[in-house]
Design brief:
Elements lengths: L1 H5 L4 H20 L4 H18 L13 H4 L6 H19 L3 H11 L3 H16 L4 H19 L7 H12 L7 H12 L11 H22 L6 H6 L4 E7 L23 E7 L2 E3 L13 E7 H10 L10 H12 L13 E7 L10 H4 L1 H5 L1 E7 L19 E6 L1 H5 L7 E10 L6 H16 L5 H14 L5 H7 L2 H20 L1 H12 L5 H15 L5 H19 L4 H11 L10 H10 L3 H27 L7
Antiparallel strand pairs: 1-4, 1-6, 2-3, 2-4, 5-7, 5-8, 6-7
Helix pairs in contact: 2-3, 2-21, 3-21, 5-8, 5-18, 5-19, 5-20, 5-26, 6-7, 6-8, 7-8, 7-9, 7-11, 8-9, 8-18, 8-26, 9-11, 9-26, 10-24, 10-25, 11-27, 18-19, 22-23, 22-24, 23-24, 23-25, 23-27, 24-25
Length: 631
């Protein structure tokens, strides 16, 4: 095959493409320029190269025309990823899967090691019998919410999620499309059909070793690349807030135990107002009643969770009489206030030194009616209050945590009495649509997992359903699409296509086989594994499977050994797509939500690839009776 490549008149194009592969890898790892810029530049060079020097077939048709090189933008895998990003954003916006995350957090005791164990092992088990993609789709929002509860960056746990699904897919015939593709090519070559559990033993050994690495080592190698929301959630500053106990609320009847109320687990209760009476800690035998105003000290994250569990409880009535008036208006169906309906956001504002609010209370200033925003809490440096939020006289430098519609919050930028702290603005989950979003998400997963619809069709339909049902606006959906993912995938798919068409991948494979001439069957199988594992991160797992299965079978026949262990080698190695985001679809799925860069995959995935290779080299030749020594 090498000689055919050398004399087909296109050898220089093959070397040009291989040089581009090397240059792209170096550029991606160096991370000197934005990833999408590198990807666009790579795509532009490929387009120019094969426009100026077309790679023509026997009919004179350019095998690498602009249309073929740009096919990556319409690749079903990329469309699926984009649609699932929109669905994932809808799940985050509605808080649909926070209950599952809360359960995992509870049984893990808040410990990262246990949480990773009880999450990744089921992921690997499910991926052995289901398509990896829907499994990862299910767990991305769950793991993201779990990371927030564990107070760790989501970037430390999403890549292990993808890798765990890949490892699980190695163990059975239906574990991944790669396995089925290799089995089909092997059958076409005249080999016996591969059974469901034919390679389960070495698959379990490799997956077990890999899972230990994912759980124990990998979280410490990944960057702590927290999102803005994560930084806000982990902020330890405490605000003084006022919690209203409403009729029919779960807080009614809650009795204090050692000064703590079960319905307020993450807040320090400083005072309970009931009419004209004020109760101070330790609140012995005090039971909460409707109309109580509870003064608490809590972080922004705790207040956000409280707002989710008890909607409206942090919207304090200005007086007890106004509480009763508000209850009456609610019963009469009065129109909700601007901070009670539609899309809502949290933000922080600071009172300026020349503010007219200084010395006034929120009620006297009429804050909520001036700005259509409601103050949830007040934070004053080195001060803790034992009075209602509405009774606090404001000072310069006070920070107010407020809630309102995004447009009302943004309008505060023009106000001279406060300074809007821009980076603190955060959209609140719309819990009203949580069940609707969960139902759409479940439908997408079921339709894809049962093969009723291809995953790309189910995902696109699910994304549209999220927008039509009000779980997500079109603007929010557009923001969910990561241009880095789109450009990187399209460019690398074009590069992989060019490698295949110019014969570059086959040239590398044959060169290695020539170099290893005379080695034992065990070492050749190990070398073949390493070569495929490295190239599958540049090509795709399926492209590597199609390319190397015939090579592996021919190599075994030349050695005079059973070809099936070499076929299984292709299955295992083609799944080792750990060192790049484009080798496997699940790596792409976690790239945007985990805020990963190309170098993160190399730093964390390459050691795993080498570990799996070393484990395979130590176990597989012995298991299949192919010695590492001798001929």
């Amino acid at each position: 095959m090498i000689s055919e490549t050398l004399f087909d008149g296109h050898i220089w194009q093959m070397w040009a493409v291989l040089a581009l592969v090397l240059g792209a890898i170096v550029a991606f790892i160096a991370d000197r320029a934005p990833l999408e810029l590198t990807a666009v530049a790579l795509l532009a060079v490929l387009l120019l190269l094969f426009q100026i020097a077309p790679l023509e077939n026997a009919d004179g048709i350019n095998r690498l025309s602009a249309a073929r090189l740009l096919e990556g933008f319409a690749n079903p895998a990329l469309i699926t990823v984009v649609a699932l990003l929109v669905i994932g954003q809808a799940l985050v916006r509605t808080g649909a899967l926070e209950g599952v995350a809360s359960f995992l957090h509870q049984i893990s005791g808040g410990r990262l090691l246990i949480a990773m164990t009880i999450s990744l092992i089921p992921v690997a088990a499910l991926s052995s019998v289901l398509n990896n993609t829907p499994v990862v789709v299910i767990f991305i929002p769950i793991m993201s919410a779990l990371a927030e509860r564990l107070n760790v960056s989501v970037s430390r746990i999403l890549l292990p999620l993808s890798f765990a699904s890949i490892l699980g897919g190695m163990t059975t015939l239906i574990g991944s499309s790669t396995n089925l593709l290799v089995a089909g090519v092997a059958r076409d070559l005249g080999l016996p059909p591969i059974g469901f559990f034919d390679f389960v033993v070495p698959g379990l050994v490799l997956a077990g070793v890999g899972l230990v690495y994912l759980i124990v080592v990998l979280p410490h190698l990944l960057p702590d690349r927290a999102t803005l929301a994560g930084q806000l959630a982990g902020d330890g500053r405490q605000f003084i807030a006022q919690v209203e106990v409403q009729d029919g609320d779960a807080m009614v009847g809650d009795a204090a135990v050692a000064g703590m109320f079960r319905s307020l687990p993450d807040a320090t209760v400083r005072m309970v107002h009931r009419g004209e009476h004020a109760f101070l800690p330790p609140f012995d035998e005090l039971e909460l009643q409707a109309g109580d105003a509870i003064v608490v000290a809590a972080t922004r994250k705790a207040l956000t969770d409280l707002l989710a569990r008890h909607p409206g409880s942090l919207h304090p009535s200005l007086t007890h009489q106004q509480y009763e008036q508000g209850q009456a208006e609610q019963e009469q169906g009065a129109e909700p206030a601007p901070w009670e309906g539609g899309e809502q956001a949290l933000a922080e504002v600071m009172i300026t030194p020349a503010s007219r609010m200084i010395g006034q209370t929120l009620e006297l200033y009429g804050f909520r009616h001036r700005f259509d925003c409601i103050v949830l809490g007040v934070q004053r440096r080195s001060r803790m209050f034992r009075q209602r939020v509405t009774d606090i006289r404001l000072e310069a430098g006070d920070v107010l945590l407020l809630q309102g519609r995004p447009e009302d919050v943004q309008s505060l930028r023009a106000n001279r009495d406060v300074i809007l702290i821009e980076w603190t603005q955060q959209t609140l989950p719309n819990y009203f649509h949580a069940r609707r979003a969960a139902a759409i998400f479940a439908s997408v997963v079921i339709l894809a997992a049962t093969n009723v619809l291809p995953i790309v069709i189910a995902a696109v339909a699910g994304a549209v359903a999220m927008m039509l049902s009000g779980c997500l606006t079109t603007r929010q959906a557009a923001r969910a699409i990561d241009r880095t993912v789109v450009m990187t995938v399209a460019a690398t798919l074009a590069l992989g296509l060019a490698m295949n068409e110019t014969g570059g991948a086959a040239f590398i494979a044959n060169a290695l086989m020539t170099t290893m001439d005379g080695a034992s069957a065990g070492w050749l199988m190990s070398a073949l594994f390493l070569l495929i594992a490295l190239l599958t991160n540049v090509l795709s797992n399926n492209a590597s499977a199609v390319l190397f299965t015939p090579i592996a079978v021919n190599l075994a026949i030349q050695l005079g050994v059973d070809p099936m262990p070499f076929v299984y080698t292709v299955i295992f190695a083609a799944s080792c797509s750990f060192a790049s985001p484009v080798g496997y679809q699940t790596n792409l799925l976690v790239m945007a939500p985990g805020h990963y860069r190309f170098v993160d995959y190399v730093r964390s995935g390459l050691p795993l690839l080498l570990l799996i290779w070393a484990c395979f080299t130590a176990f597989a030749p012995w298991y299949y009776g192919l010695p590492l020594s001798g001929q």
